[in-house]
């Protein structure tokens, strides 16, 4: 069986990058498991509360979110990294 790749999530102001394993459902889940506090409400891409700045790298949404997202932003609750990424939390 081929292992799915995992990617690193570098959060601004946190020294050590976090590993996003393929089984993690979202960037938000990975951050929560590492005890990083992230604002959120709906966890489904509606409210925009989990919006963060994507400084580097690429992410992909599981379902296209309804909340407004500008270029350079990402909703953490419904996306996964598809490369190593660097983000800045709100
Ligand atoms: S928590 Fe509502 S859009 Fe992410």
TrEMBL record:
Q: Which InterPro entries match?
A: 2Fe-2S_ferredoxin-like_sf, 2Fe-2S_ferredoxin-type, 2Fe2S_fd_BS, Benzoxazolinone_Detox_Enz, Beta-grasp_dom_sf
Entries under Pfam families matching the protein: Fer2 (PF00111)
Keywords, ordered alphabetically = Ubiquinone
Q: Which GO terms describe its molecular function?
A: 2 iron, 2 sulfur cluster binding
Q: What is this protein called?
A: Ferredoxin
The highest taxon in the source lineage is Bacteria
Instruction: List the lineage, top down.
Output: Bacteria, Pseudomonadati, Pseudomonadota, Gammaproteobacteria, Alteromonadales
Return the CDD domains for the record. Answer: fer2
Query: Which residue ranges does the record assign to the 2Fe-2S ferredoxin-type domain?
Result: 5-90
- Oxidoreductase as a keyword of this entry, yes or no, is no
Gene3D superfamilies attached here?
Answer: 3.10.20.30
């Amino acid at each position: 069986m081929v292992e799915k790749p995992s990617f690193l999530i570098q959060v601004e102001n946190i020294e050590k990058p976090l590993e996003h394993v393929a089984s993690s459902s979202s960037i938000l889940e990975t951050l929560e498991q590492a005890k990083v506090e992230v604002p959120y409400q709906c966890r489904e891409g509606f409210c925009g509360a989990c919006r963060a700045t994507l400084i580097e790298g690429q992410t992909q949404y599981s379902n296209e979110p309804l909340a407004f997202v500008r270029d350079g932003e990402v909703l953490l609750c419904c996306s996964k990294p598809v490369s190593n990424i660097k983000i800045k939390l709100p």
